[in-house]
Amino acid sequence: MDPLIDSEYSSGRYFEDRRRHEEDAEFKARNFAELFKRVAARRGLRVDSYADVGCGSGAAARNVARLLAGQGIVLKSVKGYDVSPHVREMHVEGVELVHGGLDQSRERVDLATLFDVFEHVSDPLGFIGRMSGRCDILGFHIPLDASANVGIRDLFRVKLENPGHLLFMDAAWALNLLTLSGLRVVDYEYTLNFLAPSARRGRWRSRLALPLRTLLAKISPWLVSKTLGGVSLMVVALTPSGVEKYGGAVPGSRSVPGTKRSGAR
Predict the structure, then answer these.
(1) Which of the two residues, 135 and 207, has the higher pLDDT score?
(2) If you compute the radius of gyration of the chain from its CA atoms, what whole number of angstroms results?
(3) Cβ atoms 247, 141 nearer than 8 A
(4) How far is CA 1 from CA 8, 104, 108, 155, in A?
(5) What is the pTM of this model?
(6) Separation CA 249–CA 235 (nearest Å)
(7) 170-201 tens-digit pLDDT
(8) Which pLDDT does position 264 carry in this prediction?
(9) Distance CA 211, CA 12 (A)
C-alpha cells in the first residue's frame, strides 16, 4: 500500500458507513456525463473501458456507466477502485470493485474518473501523474474550498479533519495543478454542490443561503465559488497518451482548450 495514503482510508475507518457520499453519486455522475458528452462530440473520444478511482459505494461508477450508455457509449469494462477494504465485501451490479489503486496496478483503461479524490492525497502531482499513465482521459470533480465564506470562518482546520481535505483550491488553482501534473485540460464546468441532495438536507445556514447562492450562480458560478462557496469544478482532461491519440487542440476551434467560460448547471 502507498505509504502516502492516510490510514484513515486504507484502514476502512473513512468508509465505516459503506454508503458514505452515495446520495450525491447520481448528481456528480450526471454533471460529468453532460460535460463528457460535449467534449466527446468535439474530440471524437472513444471509450470502451472505464474505472472510477476512490469509488466508495460504487454508485458513481454505476451511474456514469448508465448515463454514458444513454449517449450510445456501451462500456465493455466498468471497474471501481478504492484503497479502503470495504469494497471487498460489496457487490454493485455492473461494476467490478477492486481493493487497491489504479495507479498501483497494471490495468489500463480509456477513461478514469476521480470524483473528490486528489484533495485527500499528500502528493497530488505525483498521484495524478501516476494515474495519467493508466488511461487516456481523466475526469475530475474538485471541491473549491478557497472561498471567502470558508476563510472568514477559518474552516480550513475543520476541513483538514473532516472530510480530510489537504488542498484548498479555487478554479484557477485547480486547473493550474492539473496542468502541472502533465495533463491537457480540455473543458470544465462548475457544479453547484449547494443543489446536491446532501446539501439540501444540510445545516440551517446552508439552507438560508440557498436563495442568494442560486441568484449569484445565475450571474457567475465563479462568483459563488469565491464568496459563499458550495461549488465544485468538473473537468475533462487528456493524459499524454490521450493527447497523442486525440491531438492537443480542438478541431476547428480558435480558442485554447480549457479557457471557454462555462455556465451554471
Answers:
(1) 135
(2) 18
(3) no
(4) 13, 9, 19, 31
(5) 0.86
(6) 16
(7) 999 999 999 999 999 999 999 999 999 887 66
(8) 41
(9) 37
